[in-house]
Design brief:
Helices cover 41% and strands 16% of the residues. With 385 residues, it is an alpha/beta fold. Helix 6 links the parallel strand 6 and strand 7. It is globular and about 55 Å long.
Length: 385
Amino acid sequence: MHPFAHRLLIAALPLSLLGVAVSHASEVELPSTMAWTAYGTNSSGYAQAVAIGNMLQNKYDSSVRILPGDNDVSRMTPLKQGRVDLCACGIASYYGAEGVMMFADRDWGPQPLRVITTSTASFGLSLAVAGDLDVETPADLAGKRIAYIRGDDALNKGTEAYLAFGGLTWDDVERVDYPGYARSFDGIIAGDVDASFTTTVTPPAQQLASSPRGVSWPVLDPNDEAGWERMAAVAPYFRPHEVTAGAGGISADNPVPSASYPYPIVVANQDLEDNVAYGLIKAMQENYDDYKDNAPGASGYALENQNMTWVVPFHDAVVAYYQESGVWTDEMDAHQNALVERQQLLMDTWEAYQADAPEDEAAFIDGWMETRRAALQEAGLNPVF
């Protein structure tokens, strides 16, 4: 099925079907207080959490305390420790569920994360390319100077995924290392590098668009099945997305066929009480109009924007809500079950590995990644990492 199909299926369901199914569902039952982690106070993710929290307070007298975190680990640690109910995270939630990258060391491993909801809004995640170059698709990046951000696995994985779409690897471009994300855009403007990974609406992309070099965004043909397969092999969380907001004149009247993944990704631990998980998704869907315009990107929580066959499993109570709503299909159920089985395999493999793991930290991580890969391959699954 085409990657857009599950969203279109939901959007096409008659409202009468949704109304009848939901009318017999359980009532919203939420605790008097909840705690979430989110991105920093200047982020759209934090603003969205505040908007949702205000709705929950006004509608259900449930107070939400939001703890901003500066990085992925600081946002995920309170969830791991049970000090918060939810994390309005980024793509690190997927890395955490898989036990890779910053979550491959002995303090972490695969996490029992389950999705409550996600936001997919009008922006995209892409390589911002200097506009004075003749780059129309990722394949045109061959031989160009591409930024590599030291210590930022997510950004570098995004770059690698775009290169893969074009049939390229890091060996086909000139890698230019930078100590930070913002510095890479200074480098593009100064003419020292040609592209860096970002969102289309970020201030550095706007600054590049206003510079003499300008900005362009590689087009990803939604019908290029081979390209999407190559991208998915590197980063399966990307999906085709028509970007309608961004630097360089992107708008609803001038969209760019590109890619994206949800942000924020609202996750909980598997053992979050069913009534809380159910109450949250029901409240957010039934009161969508009360918060959708109250923070940038909050419109991305609409039902038609939910990807029902993504890469992290839903909480069981969220599945129950979608089943009652009439939008859950057998194909979605099979996908959910496969994700749950993958998660359990990873956690079982982690537990067995720790029993006789190396003491040296580097050897521990290398050994885990090898063990993880072998276990997934033996089960006929793609290790990805």
